[in-house]
Every structure is written in C-alpha cells, then in structure tokens.
Amino acid sequence: MKFKTLYFLLIVVFLNNINAQNKSKKEKIGSVGGYEMGYIDCIKKGNSYTISYENQNEVQVNGYSDFSIKLEEFENVYNTIITGFEKKQKSEISIPTVLNYVELDYTKFLGKMRVRFVQSKKKGALGVSFSAWYSLKQIKKLFGKL
C-alpha cells in the first residue's frame, strides 16, 4: 500500500514538473546590439513579452532594466513604434506595459529617426532608466519582423 502511494506521489510530482517547465519556456524574438553597446532583447514567456535593455542612465554600472507587454498588446506596441517613425514623432508616446510606465522618445540623428525606451515607476517620476537609441531596422529586428 505504501509503495502504491509513493509511486502515485512521484507521478504527480513528475507531471507537475513537466507542466511547470512548459509554462516557463522562453522564446527569443529578437535582439540588437552587444555588451556595452546598447544591447536590447525581446523574449516571449507565457502570455507576455519582456523587453530587457542596457540602462544607459547607469552606464558605469552595466545595469539592465526590463518591462513586459501583454501578449495581446504586442502587435499594437510594435505598430505604435513604427507609426512614430513614419510620422517623425516629436513628442513622447506612452505604451501599455504590465507594470511600469514606459514612453517612446524619438529624435532625428544624422538624418535618421531614432527611438529609445524611457521607463519609470509612474509618469513624471524621478529615477528613470532609458535604453540606447535605435533605428527603424533595429526595432524591426527586435520585434522579430526582419
């Protein structure tokens, strides 16, 4: 009797472990840059996408920041970024994220539009983190569209 109970418990633990591994699978969507060169990547995990980037506000520390986008908002965020390039956006645009406040900051540099992510706990908060500046081609690569 004890053997059957132990056997049953082992099967339950094994199946639970397999289920947990399936839920935590990560899929790399895209990445741009290199170490200390504005590295940024996008990873899909479960029902959200996480964008991690080198925090340019702490260059000497080599710190990273990240934010998450819900699965259903991913294409909308991508289209918002692309529209900003096309319209040569001058003001910052807020994008929907899971936890923090993230804005897109556009500038024209050497004749080409660039964008960076600016992140804080809430709008207008001190202690922001921001990514490097990225071109349209780099954003397409980050979002797996290239």
Describe this structure in words.
Residues 1-20 form the signal peptide. Keywords: Signal. It is a single chain. The strands form two sheets. A four-stranded antiparallel β-sheet has the order 1-2-3-4, covered by helices on one side. Strands 5-6-7-8 form a four-stranded antiparallel β-sheet, covered by helices on one side. The chain has a single domain, classed as Secreted effector protein pipB2 fold. The protein is of the alpha+beta class and 146 residues long. The chain is built from three helices and eight strands; from the N terminus they run αββββαββββα. It has helices spanning 2-23, 74-86, 136-142, and strands at residues 26-32, 40-45, 48-54, 64-70, 93-95, 101-109, 112-120, 129-130. Helices cover 29% and strands 34% of the residues.
Helices and strands, in order, run as HEEEEHEEEEH
User: In the CATH hierarchy, what is the architecture at level 2?
Assistant: 2-Layer Sandwich
Shape: globular
Oligomer: single chain
Radius of gyration: 20 Å
Q: Biggest sheet, strands in spatial order?
A: 1-2-3-4
Beta-strand portion reads: 25-35%
Reading off the top of the CATH hierarchy, the class is best stated as Alpha Beta
Quickly count the domains: 1
Distance between the termini: 59 Å
Strand tally is 8
Low-confidence stretches: none
Helix content: 25-40%
Number of helices: 3
- SS content category: alpha+beta
Indicate the mean pLDDT: 84
